[in-house]
Amino acid sequence: MSKRCEPPATFAPAPEASPLRDRLRSALIGAAKAAGVALGLAFPLLAYRTETDFSNALVLQERWAAVAAIALAAFVVRLICLLIPGRTKAASSPRRRRAEFAAIVARSRRLISAAGLASLIAFPLVVLVLLGPARSLKWIDSYGIQILIYMTLGWGLNIVVGLAGLLDLGYVAFYAVGAYSYALLSTNFGWSFWASLPIAGLLAALWGVALGFPVLRLRGDYLAIVTLAFGEIIRIVLTNWTDLTNGEAGVSSIPRVSFFGLPFIAGPEGFAAHFGLAYSPIYRVIFLFYLALALALLTNFVTLRLRRMPLGRAWEALREDEIACRSLGINTVAVKLAAFALGALVGGLAGAVFAARQGFVSPSSFTFIESATILAIVVLGGAGSQLGVALAALFIIGGSELLRELDWLQHIVGEGFDPTQYRMLIIGFALIVIMNWKPRGLIANRTPSVFLAEPRLAAPALAEEGRV
Amino acid sequence: MEIFLQQLINGVTLGSIYGLIAIGYTMVFGIIGMVNFAHGDIFMLSTFIALILFLALTQILGVSSVALSFVLAMVAAMALTSLWSYMLERLAYRRLRKSFRLAPLISAIGASIFLSNLVYVLQGPRNRPAPSLFDAVIKVTHGGGYDVTLSAKQILIVLVTALLLAAFWVVVQKTPLGRAQRACAQDMRMAALLGIDVDRTISFTFVIGGALAAVAGVLYILYYGVVNSGDGFIPGVKAFTAAVLGGIGSLPGAVVGGLLIGLIETFWAAYISSDYKDVAAFSILAATLVFMPSGLFGRPDVEKV
Amino acid sequence: MRAPHTALLSVEHLTMRFGGVIAIDDLSFTAARGEITALIGPNGAGKTTVFNCVTGFYKPSAGRLALTPSGAAAPEDLLALTQSGRRFSETASGEIYLLERMADFEIAQRGRVARTFQNIRLFAGMTALENLIVAQHNALMAASGPGLWGLFGLPSHRARQKAAIETAKYWLEQIDLIGRADDPAGALPYGAQRRLEIARAMCARPALLCLDEPAAGLNPRESAELAALLRAIRDEHAASILLIEHDMSVVMEISDHIVVLDYGEKIADGAPSAIRKDPKVIKAYLGVDDEDEVDLAASGTRA
Ligand SMILES: Nc1ncnc2c1ncn2[C@@H]1O[C@H](COP(=O)(O)OP(=O)(O)O)[C@@H](O)[C@H]1O
Ligand SMILES: [Mg+2]
């Protein structure tokens, strides 16, 4: 490296050529190896697609062009990687640039948050004005409300994973408890949404405590696996306890949310009639949007407040070093339980809103994939960062919905091309990439919870090395 | 009694498969202390690889001998699955060894989702039926209007498992790589100081784990006759349960745990409830981790302060 | 000469086994109130293991660890508590805690035992100030009800929070880190991290402070400052100190009482002047080239 930087005058051109040729050769060999590996990986899975014929026996369809493309791509990418010189070790300028960038983000964080909040509040009205009631339904419902629900879930899980550093792989269980609480209370006992909402939250929190108590002593990865097991157990019970839950078919005709008692229906007792408006389903959707927004903001507010309080600091300390916490007299089981219960409470509330939005719940909404999606939101956004989680929810859930819009690609790529299939593929890939390149997530700066002097940011370099 | 005997046979068959997968979990945990969550999906991947190879051999290359195709497909699947397992470690885990505690697990979850959806995208969502092979059935006893049977498949599964475990045992105990592997599992830093190539040893662990998972995959599809891209998850969790039950890090423990889980599952399904048979596995997993985290054969894990 | 002091911590017949290894074998000694008691011995002698038993991170295989923060326990009270199977009791002469029965956090919270670690355990991603405030967790929680009044910004919480910051500031000044209060603890230099860990332990207002090799890796000037700090802690903050240290200059200078361990057994126990002359100690410990020991301590990574 250092030789290369010296002025060329001190070197004759001849010795310069030989290392270059060597380098080219080794790069070509490396690229060939990569292509070989790609071939090996692609060989049966991509080369042949299994299809069932009339007699339900399997036949193979060949896709050799795709295999060749993959191998070629691997070759080219690897070659470029090997030929472009590696980053110099003493790269002080990127670090400084990164610090400057962090400072800019820190200063504008308030601004970003305020702008985000304003656009969230304005979103349904803007969409309504731009697209009219009929076409805006989808945007407010599938995009708006759904993103808000996941944002809430992300913020709820962020308490457990991001702040307390406990990896919970069964978070969807609490979401399910909340959703089924409202579904069953309303369909069996005629409870209203508003009466069921706190019950749904409390039941979920209770589950959180009941499940958390025995397992919170476990080491981190065991805890993760046990929570995964609990999540699956709840899903299987929901599937098989048909008397209560109607099994796989789910609970349907869950009453819609009312405007504090005024139902959103067409008749004279309805919301529209009461306010002298023409009936439209859009009012209900808009109301639900603001309801979900209120819940999300409440979660955010409580979390931000808690971070500046003893409990929240104990969570973060726990994430940094549990043994040190115990040596300071912190009852770590109680502190973990509080995080678990609060996370579960938020999950339960979000579940009730979900049930009210869908009007239908079934076990298939509460699979491990759902837990993994919420985890991806937290991890991608930056464990511990409220803004990051919100943005990640926007990208992941908004992006997933956008994939649905891409079905016109069928005309190009071919029949049977379903872009939504790629959603989890991308999420899985993103999890690997984030852990390897930016383990603290996309927004990695931690704002200290208390200052003696100027508000400053934890140096990003250090925060990156930190633990989730 | 007859039902009991039949379930015993079925349980041992199933347990052999779980045991083979469990070794992959336990070896990786033993050496780098991580739960390789994607191992179940490596297993699922291998069933597809083997299935496709078998079809290619019989349909496209026209190999007429079923046994030959079977063996060839299995060996090739072992090699290709090992490659997947090796690349998984290289690309998704290696950089994370010095990262924070949970980073490898989160990456492994990502890898698990990625692999299962990759197969979903490449091979489609529907169940893939496999050609049925080795259909001979032996009637063992008869009683109470109930035949106790032992199929050729079951014999084959148990035999292949036993053979591979023996071979595996020799590799781990007798070869230099196996010795290096055990040394790293004991104390990675010390092993590195003594000049053992830790990276290579860890890669070797993943390769062996992948090969055994591929055997499990072949036996699985032979036994069940159908596979789906989502099939890595539940068998993966069950095999992990087996590893934990046997004492994670312990190789004999993984095999014993696998047999136990296989037996518990079949007996639970037969006598208690087949709807809840997965609940049994998950409950055992949770209970073992909570009450007996070092399992049957594992070393107790004292938290170093 | 100091006045004779009463026992704060009595270690009696402590034994700790790890599988076949006997790390501590039938060890008895006392740490007196208001004194600095040093625990010395070669690497692997079992010193850290004693700390881990005292602070509840390991359950001893056998033995009794009696802590009496406010006065010496009457023998009959101690006997009664031991036989009752309870963990602590209030007696006429003050509370008695049997540490071997208590959980680690309980020992810190009720017994007011604080410690540092041989390989520093700060909350690396949190600032120095936050580290010191986390140490006051229990006091803060008590003042803010179940910890939730702060959600609504109640004044009692705010007042307590202010007091916590003042305490933290005081200790940051004591350890000369007030200028770096808002820096992440993990970004501080090594010596500063060691001092911060001591300050963090002090913020928990301990009756007994256990320090595991606080001078390891410090330069001579830093070591001298550390000695002064420890003396100040003993004399001005009513905290007794149990000290593991390899740096003999520090140990001999500030200890009131020294216990020497070798292979898990006590080989000497007494005032520094006596220990210095003890032939057994010289053979087992000081006899080894002093420089080597210090080097070993600095580079040792074993817990
Ligand atoms: N968690 C543990 N498991 C097994 N052995 C341990 C453990 N902790 C300490 N030991 C053993 O106890 C002995 C004493 O160690 P330690 O107390 O750390 O010594 P010191 O602090 O005096 O250097 C050593 O032989 C060490 O290996
Ligand atoms: Mg020590």
Structure description:
The complex is a heterotrimer of chains A (468), B (305) and C (303). Chain A is mostly helical. Chain A folds into 2 domains: 22-48 and 61-82; 132-464, ABC transporter involved in vitamin B12 uptake, BtuC. Chain A contains 18 helices and 2 strands. Chain A has helices spanning 2-5, 13-47, 64-83, 92-163, 172-189, 193-215, 220-240, 242-245, 271-274, 282-307, 310-320, 322-327, 332-358, 368-381, 386-405, 410-413, 422-437, 460-465, and strands at 48-52, 58-62. Chain A has a two-stranded antiparallel sheet. In chain A, strand 1 and strand 2 (58-62) form a beta hairpin. Chain B has a domain at 19-229. In chain B, 72% of the residues lie in helices and 6% in strands. Chain B has a two-stranded antiparallel sheet. A two-stranded antiparallel ribbon of chain B has the order 2-3. Chain B starts with a helix and ends in a 14-residue tail after the last helix. The mean pLDDT of chain B is 90. Residues 289-303 of chain C have low confidence and may be disordered. The longest helix of chain C is centred in the middle third of the chain and has 20 residues, at 155-174. Chain C has 2 domains: 7-112 and 206-302, Rossmann fold, CATH 3.40.50; 123-205, 3-Layer(aba) Sandwich (Rossmann fold), CATH 3.40.50. In chain C, helix 4 crosses helix 6, helix 4 (128-134) packs parallel to helix 7 (190-203) and helix 6 packs across helix 7. Classes of the chains: A mainly alpha (468), B mainly alpha (305), C alpha/beta (303). Adenosine-5'-diphosphate (ADP) binds next to strand 2 and helix 1 of chain C. Adenosine-5'-diphosphate is lined by residues 18, 21, 23, 41, 43-49, 302-303 of chain C.
In terms of topology, how is this protein built?
The complex is a heterotrimer of chains A (468), B (305) and C (303).
Chain A: H1 2-5, H2 13-47, E1 48-52, E2 58-62, H3 64-83, H4 92-163, H5 172-189, H6 193-215, H7 220-240, H8 242-245, H9 271-274, H10 282-307, H11 310-320, H12 322-327, H13 332-358, H14 368-381, H15 386-405, H16 410-413, H17 422-437, H18 460-465
Helix pairs in contact in A: 2-3, 4-10, 4-13, 4-14, 4-15, 5-6, 5-7, 5-13, 6-13, 10-11, 10-13, 11-13, 14-15, 14-17
Chain B: H1 2-32, H2 39-60, H3 66-93, H4 103-123, E1 128-129, E2 137-143, E3 146-151, H5 152-174, H6 176-186, H7 188-193, H8 198-224, E4 226-227, H9 233-246, H10 251-271, H11 277-291
Antiparallel strand pairs in B: 1-4, 2-3
Helix pairs in contact in B: 1-5, 1-6, 1-8, 1-9, 1-10, 2-3, 2-4, 2-8, 2-9, 3-8, 5-6, 5-8, 6-8, 9-10, 9-11, 10-11
Chain C: E1 7-18, E2 21-32, E3 36-40, H1 47-54, E4 62-67, H2 75-84, E5 88-91, E6 94-98, H3 104-109, E7 113-115, H4 128-134, H5 137-143, H6 155-174, H7 190-203, E8 208-212, H8 220-236, E9 240-244, H9 248-254, E10 257-262, E11 265-270, H10 272-277, H11 279-286, H12 290-299
The structure holds adenosine-5'-diphosphate and magnesium ion.
